[in-house]
Amino acid sequence: MPTVISSVCWVPKGVAQSNPDRLKLDDTQIQELMQQQQDDSMDDVTEDTQGTATAGEEEIALEEGATPLDKIDQLYNLDNYDTDEQNLELAGAGIQGLAYYSNPSADPYITLDNASDTSSQDFSIESTDNLVLVGRADDEYSVVEVHIFNEATQDEYCHHEVMLTAHPLCIELVRLDELSLIAVGTMEPEIELWDLDLVDSVEPCVVLGAKKEKSKKKLSKNRHNKPVLCLSWNKCNPHLLASGSADRTVRIWDIKNVLCVDTLLHPDTVQSVAWHPYKSSLLLTGCVDGCVRLFDCATQEKLVSAVDLHSEIEKVIWNHLEPLQFIACTENGRVFCVNSEAGEILYEISVHDKPVTDIALSAFLPGLLVSTSVDKSYKVWDVSPGGVKCLHSCTAGLGRLYCVGFSPDNPYVFAIGGEKQGLSVVDLMKIAPVAALLNGRELKRVVT
After folding, report:
1. Between the CA of residue 212 and those of 208, 245, 418, what are the distances in Å?
2. Separation CA 28–CA 248 (nearest Å)
3. Which of 27, 88, 259, 283: CA 20 to 30 A from 351?
4. Are 180 and 197 in contact (CB under 8 A)?
5. What is each CA distance from 201 to 23, 30, 143, 164, in whole angstroms?
6. How far apart, in whole angstroms, are the C-alpha atoms of residue 215 and residue 258?
7. Residue 144 exposed, middle or buried by CB count within 10 Å (0-12, 13-18, 19+)
């Protein structure tokens, strides 16, 4: 599996701490984390070894009183594995079974002191820097990479990583009181929230929908039971987060109280959710059944309307510069703009020959839209009232494209990710034909 970027999310300038904190654990805390990881691994192995043997696997008879772990020892002949003649101590299973030295100075591959790993200049975050949160995974690991992008110098690099235990599917920035949190939906039915300003953290600050008892498979009414595919933070009510899942539900979470406060049932998988940028109770959902639904969570009935677009909804977003409108993209390669009050389709365009995976609107240049597709291209569109036209089309060299996000501080800059080659940041003003078309266009900033 190549290195896939499944999601991107920008952090506005000035939000992150200029000098992020580094996690420091004492010996007791390290031992507790190691024991917790080992206990979790034992639970998983016990569950996996219960039941019948898979096809082609030779059944091994256990001695009386033997445990399932003894069976694994016999199957793989672990008792006869050579041990290191130096008897160096490894600190056991960490994230996804990663083994590491309990004393880093004993690791022959670590040759630099922690203080010299990174220069203080590279580690600090300047007031002119944006951060880009990048969900990335391959066969070996899953992470959220925290990239720095400086538009003045065009520098872009990975500042630090957050190690995950499952493939990331969606990322959302959450700003709650004085905290800046990275909300992550993965192939697991839980939502992890990590501190943006803490480097080298080993576990999330909060887990929404965490299992209470690992041994029980019973489905809970207060959590998802399949992968979390989409997230949306409510900027008007900062303690609320919406999540959509393959379990056909949308859940509304109270982050402060770590509690699911509402559940919206759907007929099929929910692939996109979006809170209204200015009306705190309005929520859009995009479903595999082809419908975009508008909910008013402050009313008893909740469902306000449903617009059938006749193809799987891949993404739905509000037009923050025209707040009565929303835009949706679909599996059949089309983009729709809809009046949310009347349920009227204002325009429909065929943007790609294959599924449209993501769309994004410029932060304050009206009508500037970017679409990505599994056809390996991104396209830049002018969807202003004067008429819809394609301004630019490019095969980015990233394979199939999965995600796009505009900078919150520059109307011409966006980031894209796909199935290979990592993150790519595009500045439209560096593309001469596009710059000529956009120069002089009036910018619009919304004051809320």
Report:
1. 11, 19, 35
2. 42
3. 283
4. yes
5. 6, 12, 12, 11
6. 22
7. buried
Query: Which burial class, exposed, middle or buried, applies to 202 when counting CB atoms under 10 A from its CB (0-12, 13-18, 19+)?
Result: middle
Amino acid at 258: V
Give CA–CA dist 278/266, Å, rounded. Answer: 25
Task: Report how far apart, in Å, the C-alpha atoms of 77 and of each of 69, 71, 87, 92 are.
Answer: 12, 10, 20, 19
**Of residues 363, 257, 252, 264, the one with CA closest to residue 304:** 264
* Residue 260 CA: distances (Å) to CA of 175, 268, 281, 324, 339: 19, 20, 16, 28, 30
- The position carrying tokens 């303690």 is 239
SS (H, E, C) 179-227: EEEEEEEECCCCEEEEECCEECCCCCCEEECCCCCCCCCCCCCCCCCCC
Tell how far CA 324 is from the center of its chain: 27
Where residue 424 falls (left for φ over 0; alpha for ψ -120 to 50; beta otherwise) is beta
Q: What are the tens digits of pLDDT across the range 64-96?
A: 555 444 544 444 444 554 444 444 333 333 344
Q: Are 250 and 258 in contact (CB under 8 A)?
A: no
CA–CA distances in Å: residue 130 to residues 152, 157, 369 = 11, 11, 21
The tens digit of pLDDT for each residue in 389-441 reads: 999 999 989 999 999 999 999 999 999 999 999 999 999 999 999 999 999 99
